Structures are given as C-alpha cells and as structure tokens.
Amino acid sequence: FQTALNVNAANADLRVRVQLFDNGRSSTGPLDPNFPNSNASLIKTFVINATPVNDSPIPNVFFLDSDEDRRITIQAADVLLGDLPGPTSDENNGSQSLKMTQIERTSRGGGTIIPTFDAFNNIVSFEYLPPSNLVGPDTFLYVVTDNGIPARSGTGTITIGLRGVTDPPQF
After folding, report:
1. Strand 136-146 to strand 112-117: parallel, antiparallel, or no bridges (unpaired)?
2. 121 φ/ψ sector (left φ>0, alpha ψ -120 to 50, else beta)
3. Contacts of 58 (CB under 8 A, 6+ apart)
4. pTM
5. Is there a contact between 144 and 98 (Cβ–Cβ < 8 Å)?
6. pLDDT tens digits, residue range 68-102?
7. With contact defined as beta carbons under 8 Å apart, do 98 and 142 qualify?
8. Could you tell me which residues come within 8 angstroms of residue 135 by beta carbon, excluding any fewer than 6 positions away?
9. Which of 87, 66, 86, 72 lies closest to 134, judged by CA?
C-alpha cells in the first residue's frame, strides 16, 4: 500500500476493505465441480496510519544580471524568496522557515563568493566577485534548510548573467 504524494492521516481517511474467498476446493474431501465451496470471509476494514514526515525544501532557480568586473552583494532572503518548504500538512511542520546554510565559495566560471553569517551560522548575505572580463552566465550552488522536524535541506542554483562592458583603452 502506498499513499499518493503528501497524503497522510492528517489530511485523509486511509481505510482498506478486504474480503477473502477460498479457491473452491475442500480440504476434507474430493473436488466436486457441482458443489463448489463458496465460503467467503466477512468484510474486514483496516485503518492505515500514515505519519506525516518533513520533506526537503524545493529550491527555485535564482537569476541576476550584472556587468562584468562588478562586485555585487546579494541578500540570502532574496535568493530564498522563490524557494518552497517541503510539502507537509503536519502540525509540527506547518509554518516552516527557510535559511541559507551553505554556499559554494568558487563559481563555475572562477568567481569568488564571500558569505556573511548570522549568530546561528546561517548565511544572511554574500558578495560575488566575478573573475576579470568574464562575460556570460556564471553559476554556483547553495543549500537551503528548513526548520521542520527533522530539519531537511535542498540544493539550489544561483546564476549570475554577466554583461560585457567596454573597457577603456590601455597602453
């Protein structure tokens, strides 16, 4: 027995009705096709307790445009704005909050990420420093964690779209 996604005892009545029939053969005598054994059990109802569990958060893709060679500061709250807590209707996990708990320190394109932490070791903001003259998308990963019981985490992607700018001529 498997419930549908996110169905549990808190939001559904999970009952199964069962009735057993024998195969028509008698264990005490020969099989007589003219007199089949049609014994059937009483219908029995089983109640299944499906305990809700906390699911991992669902990160959304975060995208930001910036100019090449420009240092930018990004608030963790802005990245988490589109992220969703793991679906559950359990009263213990009903109103979850999300926190950014980890972030890569180097992007795929070679940029540097410098996080700023709060007193609980959660990331509140971070600075992104692109490598010199990088143009195009640059990506790095972060971890979002909920405060459910138990806490769960998911991995999201941050993409910075770097626009080229005209550099002054150099001698």
Report:
1. unpaired
2. left
3. 83, 84, 85, 86, 154
4. 0.72
5. yes
6. 999 999 999 999 999 988 765 555 545 789 999 99
7. no
8. 68, 162, 163, 164
9. 66
